Amino acid sequence: MSIESSQSLGTGLGEDHVTGLFAAVQRLQNEHAYILELLEEMEVQAVQIGKASTTAQDWSRLQHLRLWTIGVMQELEAHAKWEDGVLLPFLVSYFHLQESPSLAPSLWMMEKEHELAVEYVECFMREFHKLRPASSRERMWKTASLLLQACYILKSHIEKEEKLVFPLVEQVLTDVDYLFL
Ligand SMILES: [Fe+2]
Ligand SMILES: [Fe+2]
User: Fold this and answer.
1) Which residue in 41, 64, 73, 79 is a FRET match for 98, CA 20 to 30 A apart?
2) What sign results for the dihedral spanned by CA atoms 33, 84, 146, 159?
3) No. of helices (H) and no. of strands (E), the chain
4) Going along 65-177, which residue ranges are E strands?
5) 4-41 pLDDT per residue, tens
């Protein structure tokens, strides 16, 4: 079973299932690495706003940054959709079945973090639309700095997510080892 060909990882622990779980962890790591690269670039662009030699240059950099941000958010949403729709439901249902302490509070916290980052990005978009090419550099810089907040939250979100998910997956795989011994 490949993760691409399945809508859900289910809750069983067959051999196919383990292959699916491995593929899912690989996908999580790959997508996180990719999103982190995009966020790094977003930060590099955001700190440059207000530092160009002319306001017109700052304005065009800001427009580029806005387009970049739209792209990053699309990638992030696609990733979150898979994560929330496939990977996390599997882990939640697996650990719930085992009557382990509930994961709900950490998952809730992470959900909130994601929402907060999206709010910063939406705030950036709103502020951007109020700007004009002749707006002050300070306003442009302040607008761009909203994205720095979003990047900071998202980077720490990805780190926390991996700290939560990897030990859980390891636990599942240990259980599988026991089953197939
Ligand atoms: Fe996430
Ligand atoms: Fe993630």
Assistant:
1) 79
2) negative
3) 5, 0
4) none
5) 444 566 555 566 667 778 888 899 999 999 999 999 99
In angstroms, the CA 151 to CA 60 distance is 21
Contact 121, 73 (CB under 8 A): yes
For the chain, percent of residues with pLDDT exceeding 90: 61
Three-state DSSP class for residue 14: coil
Q: Give the pTM.
A: 0.85
Ligand 1: distance of its center to the CA of 52 in Å? 34
Q: Which percentage of the chain shows pLDDT scores above 70?
A: 85
pLDDT of residue 1: 36
Q: How far is the CA of 153 from the centre of ligand 1 (A)?
A: 11
5-12 contacts at long range (C-beta below 8 A, 24 or more positions apart):
6/86, 7/86, 8/86, 8/89, 8/90, 9/86, 9/87, 9/89, 9/90, 10/90, 11/90, 11/93, 11/94, 11/97
Residue 12 CA, ligand 2 centroid: distance in Å: 23
Residues 102-129 have pLDDT tens digits of 667 787 888 899 999 999 999 999 999 9
DSSP class of residue 7?
S
Q: Name the amino acid, one letter, at 177.
A: D
Ligand lying closest to the C-alpha of residue 31: 2
